[in-house]
Amino acid sequence: MKHKLTVFFIFIFALFILAGVTVWFYPLNVFEQLSRIGLRMAGFEKAIISASRGCLVYWHGGTGPTVVLLHGANDQAGSWTQIAKALKAKYRVLVPDLPGHGSSEPLNGTLSIGDVLEGLERLLEAELHAEKVTLVGNSMGGWVALLYALRHPDRISHVVLENGVAIRREGIQVTMMPSNRAEARMMMEALTGPDAPRFPIFVLDHLVRRAPTSPLARLAHSGSEGFSLEGRLHEVSAPVTLLWGEADQLLPLAYAKRVADQLPVATLKVIPRCGHVPHRECRAFFLSLLEESLYDVPKGSAHVLP
Question: What is the SS3 assignment for 274?
Fold first, then answer.
């Protein structure tokens, strides 16, 4: 009996050591997996469909008008867990791993904005019938949402840009593929608000290790020829709400105002002291603005609300 207890405690100790090493060397992977478990615990079902570059993974749940939550580059569906959980009471919510991200293929090799857009098109072909959809897109997800709105205006009721890429940035110096710890620190400080906690060094080091093969690096190598929105925002017929973290240094508030000014129907709502991904950093404030925006869709010309 004593021998069995010794073996048991050695086993438990080894598990703790393994868990600690995993968290230290792969903290981003651990966080991502926990967030994806959260989607299941919130009652979302996982589904897989085929797209041109391989399998597309997504989660779905709830009933009502359809809302699709689109993450940014280097992110994945689990980042939306808490927002999706809250929306599920009133809406049918779709949360994809966009192509090349999370568990959606292609997991290696080339990746383009065209691949990401085609994945969204394939998802909505499979999940939508006659109804229109609201697309909520953070960063790159906003870019893809606007591209879809241009290509399929009859399928869109509303686009919500959360610090979303729409037009060319001017004079912005933020390194998004850090090569060392100092660059990783500067990147995260540029992407988060002044009240956000500082990232520990083991997280920064993991960001550096992942950068060369990240989805963002793969997208950068492929370019965006044929998918620029420069000079095309006036063609977007769907109403657009911009929910913007005021402290974002990658896409600052002046950028958001330029985007809103070029859209036919738009409202810009500002989230004070918040960075590039408000749905994570300022979740409660972001959720309240999102729910308000889903209920009160813009109907006039662009204007700014505090």
Answer: coil
pLDDT of 14 over the 70 cut: no
Residue identified by tokens 């993450």 is: 71
Answer whether residue 42 shows pLDDT above 60.
yes
Amino acid in the structure at residue 110: T
Is-contact 229 167, C-beta < 8 A?
yes
The dihedrals phi and psi of 135, each to the nearest 5 degrees, come to -105, 130
Q: Which long-range contacts (CB under 8 A, 24 or more apart) does 8-16 make?
A: none
Where do the domains of the chain lie, and which CATH numbers do they carry?
27-305 (3.40.50.1820)
0.90 exceeded by the pTM? yes
C-alpha dist (Å) from residue 44 to 36, 47, 89, 164, 228: 10, 10, 12, 25, 34
3-state secondary structure of 255: helix
Round the average pLDDT of the chain to a whole number and report it: 90
Q: What's the first-to-final CA gap in the chain, in angstroms?
A: 68
